[in-house]
Amino acid sequence: MDMPDTNKTRSPFPPTKGGPGWVFILLLLIFACSEEQEHATANIDVNDSTAFMRSRGISTLISDSGVLRYKLVAEEWDIYTHTNPPTWKFMKGLLMERFDEQFHIDLHVEADTAYLHEQRLWELRGRVVIHNVEGTLFRTEELYWDMNEHKMWSTQYMRIKTTDQELEGTDFRSNEQMTDYYVSNSKGAFPKSDVDGSKKEEAPTDTAAAVAATTPTGEKAGRIMPTAPGKSAKKDDGHWRY
Predict the structure, then answer these.
(1) Per-residue pLDDT of the chain (242 residues; tens, 9 = 90+)
(2) 51-241: what fold?
(3) If you ran DSSP here, which 8-state letter would residue 204 be given?
(4) Cβ atoms 105, 99 nearer than 8 A
(5) How far apart are CA 76 and CA 82, in angstroms?
């Protein structure tokens, strides 16, 4: 009779199929846990998205070099000092008036939205309406005004209207007073008397040839001024159109 081998130890757990596979899965889980890393985002400065100052119902006067020059009226005025560049924002519209040395209004500006970058560059958007000291009306949807360079410009459609003249086009450039300006790709309407100085002179017979021969080029092409006598094109409702 054979006696059992007492030197062999018996596992208290029943045998299972695929034992080595469980060991591999356990090692894989341990390895995955050890390789897990934390992903942290960069710190966000609360000042990047929060206005340094926020005001409501603003009507204020602003001086330049100790001289009163501007009046601002706005429903909201937010000042961001930690943005790049620092910016004033008028998200619910802006009305601005500029004064000359005698405190007369020489420029009236309205815009649906306005930004002032670094307290020097205005960015006006939406319905932008400007009146200059001569009573000329300007309408566009975008206008930039550099107060350091004393220049204004826009690449959007611009419409200009005086008491008896109209001009429209794109690529607008102007001085700060909006009194010396030009518009490229322009067309307009002028009184006949401004064009040739005579109400009796008739328009040229061959209007197409007249336009082709006399259409101005360059920066002065859009300048709001009468064309030379005999260089107009078509009479329409008492105005000359070119």
Answers:
(1) 455 555 555 555 455 555 555 555 555 555 555 555 555 555 555 455 688 888 999 999 998 888 899 999 999 999 999 888 899 999 999 999 999 888 899 999 999 999 999 999 999 999 999 999 999 999 999 999 999 999 999 999 999 998 888 999 999 999 999 999 988 888 877 665 555 554 444 444 443 333 333 333 333 333 333 333 333 334 344 333 33
(2) lipopolysaccharide transport protein A fold (2.60.450)
(3) P
(4) yes
(5) 19
Boundaries of every domain in the chain: 51-241
Cβ of 190: how many Cβ atoms within 10 Å? 21
- C-alpha 129/C-alpha 174 separation (Å) is 15
Look at residues 105, 98, 89 and name the one whose alpha carbon lies nearest to residue 63.
98
Cα–Cα distance measured from residue 58 to residue 90, given in angstroms and rounded to the nearest whole number:
10
Residue 111 token pair:
């815009």
Strand partners, 176: none
Closest by CA position to 108, among listed 177, 190, 13: 177
Asked whether the whole model's pTM tops 0.70, one would answer no
Q: For 84, which DSSP code?
A: S
Alpha-carbon span 172 to 176, nearest angstrom: 13
Burial class from Cβ neighbours inside 10 Å (0-12, 13-18, 19+) for residue 149 reads exposed
Q: Cα 149 to chain center, whole Å? A: 18
Q: What are phi and psi of 185, to 5 degrees?
A: 50, 45
